[in-house]
Write a structure and sequence with these properties.
Elements (H helix, E strand, L loop, with lengths): L11 H18 L9 H4 L29 H6 L8 E6 L12 E2 L11 E2 H11 L1 E7 L9 E9 H5 L5 E2 L3 E6 L10 E5 H5 L9 E6 L2 E2 L9 E3 L12 E7 L22 E4 L5 E2 L5 E8 L7 E8 L13 E2 L1 E2 L38 E8 L5 E10 L21 E7 L1
Parallel strand pairs: 1-12, 14-21
Antiparallel strand pairs: 1-3, 2-6, 4-5, 5-9, 7-8, 7-12, 9-10, 9-11, 13-15, 15-19, 16-17, 16-20, 18-19, 20-21
Bound molecules: ligand MTE and molybdenum atom.
Ligand MTE binds next to loops.
């Protein structure tokens, strides 16, 4: 016998509260704890933090010591204060004596000759070219997103334009502070096209200096960090200090060395929050999680519930039920940092201030579903995202080294 389970539409108020609880826990604690029954509906909850506070992102950093633990003189020496920060940009020259066609730039920026770009120069460029984008940071090797922020900065193309004309440049690679130890280098790269030829209405790679309306703190890779809107976290290099132009056509990312796909795009996927091992029979159960809208967009999130006590020959075909997706905020001024209009944010209509897609591409939203009439037994709960091309997770890219999107599973018991 299968349990009778049906997703019931939550009222708008309940849903907002559900989402609030979920995201408060999910975004602050890294994973949410599921509250069962109807208790959540009675509680009044704080505004949902659509933006994760900078210090509440889950951190993925290499380095010994990690650059964000440096203090005082060490920080100044590392050039990781806004006053001391500098960006060097050069072409990398021939790989060996035989290479005739190597990258060159008419102008380079170096510390040695006193031309390196400083924080003030970057902000000056920002006055003319500034872009803003809402992006969830997600590690290719960690299932749930690390946090979501409003990132502001200057398109990489506008900075590289200062070096033009460029010759024989096929790729751009870049890295951040790594204790001046080659073994600690963490490097990423883009094709020339991705860096320079942003299609109309599309998203540029950018050099970011603000997060959620504030200077990017050291813990999040400040004072200056690369942000690649469409990519997993490994392309968004923290503590950025160096950009190199090369004729090497291969993606020379540090991440590529561990079998990761260096050209991966963010995947569309749903993730289940933690839940208790046991829930009470007869009480409604609200399940929740996060969903990422990747390159192929997000159509819906679905869950399935299977009673594992049922013998194989009694089993029915797995049924998937649609979940409720968090709605777009009606007033974006309550979500965005003070004084910033959604009309100024990429991914929003510049006239109406409404999102061009919902969920926003490369951002995360919460989802939930309510299950009633649970009968005692052992269960397996799964959640999956369906993209705009009707591929259900883990399709269309079940290869986990292009980004974690295996169908999330939680086991629990109804008693
Ligand atoms: N310099 C530097 N940048 C880095 C990393 C790093 O170790 N060093 N880790 C990368 C990886 S693998 C991820 S997933 C993201 C994590 O960003 P966060 O720590 O801000 O959440 O930063 C990326 N940028
Ligand atoms: Mo990562």
């Amino acid at each position: 016998m299968r349990p009778h389970s049906s997703p019931q539409s939550l009222t708008r108020r309940e849903f907002v509260q559900t989402a609030s609880l979920l995201s408060t826990a999910a975004l602050i604690g890294g994973s949410a704890h599921l509250s069962t029954g109807t208790a959540f509906a009675e509680e009044s909850t704080p505004e949902r933090p659509f933006l994760t506070p900078a210090d509440k992102f889950r951190d993925v950093s290499r380095g010994n010591p990690k650059p964000h633990t440096l203090m005082g003189d060490a920080l100044v020496e590392a050039r990781l204060t806004p006053e001391t920060w500098k960006l060097e940009i050069t072409a990398d020259g021939p790989a060996d004596e035989k290479q005739k066609e190597f990258a060159t730039a008419a102008k380079s920026f170096t510390i040695e000759d006193g031309t390196a770009l400083d924080f003030a120069a970057l902000q000056e460029l920002g006055k003319k070219y500034e872009v803003r984008f809402l992006k969830a940071m997600q590690c290719l090797n960690i299932p749930a997103p690390l946090g979501q922020g409003l990132w502001e900065g200057v398109p990489l193309r506008e900075v590289l334009r200062l070096c033009s004309p460029l010759k024989n440049v096929r790729r751009v690679y870049y890295w951040g502070f790594h204790n001046n130890d080659p073994k600690q280098l963490f490097q990423s790269s883009l094709s020339y096209t991705q860096a320079m030829e942003t299609p109309p209405g599309e998203l540029p790679a950018f050099i970011a200096y603000r997060l959620n309306g504030e200077p990017i703190p050291l813990t999040r890779g400040g004072p200056v960090r690369m942000v690649i809107p469409w990519a997993h976290g490994f392309k968004s290099i923290k503590w950025l200090q160096r950009i190199c132009l090369t004729n090497d056509y291969k993606a020379n990312d540090t991440y590529a060395e561990q079998n990761n796909d260096p050209e991966s795009y963010l995947k569309t996927a749903a993730y289940l929050d933690d839940m208790p091992a046991q829930v009470k029979a007869g009480k409604p159960l609200t399940i929740r999680g996060l969903a990422m809208s990747g390159l192929s967009g997000l159509k819906r999130v679905e869950y399935s519930l299977v009673n594992t006590d049922v013998s194989d020959h009694e089993k029915k075909k797995e049924e998937w039920h649609e979940c409720e997706l968090q709605e777009a905020p009606s007033d974006w001024s309550t979500v965005l940092p003070n004084g910033l209009s959604s009309k100024q944010v990429l991914g929003f209509d510049s006239k109406t201030g409404q999102p061009l897609h919902w969920p926003l591409r490369y951002s995360m939203v919460t989802w939930s579903a309510r299950i009633t009439d649970l009968k005692p037994g052992k269960y397996e709960l799964r959640a999956r995202a369906v993209d705009l091309n009707d591929f259900a997770q883990p399709e269309p890219r079940p290869i986990q080294k292009t980004g974690r999107n295996s169908v999330d599973l939680k086991e629990f018991e109804v008693v």
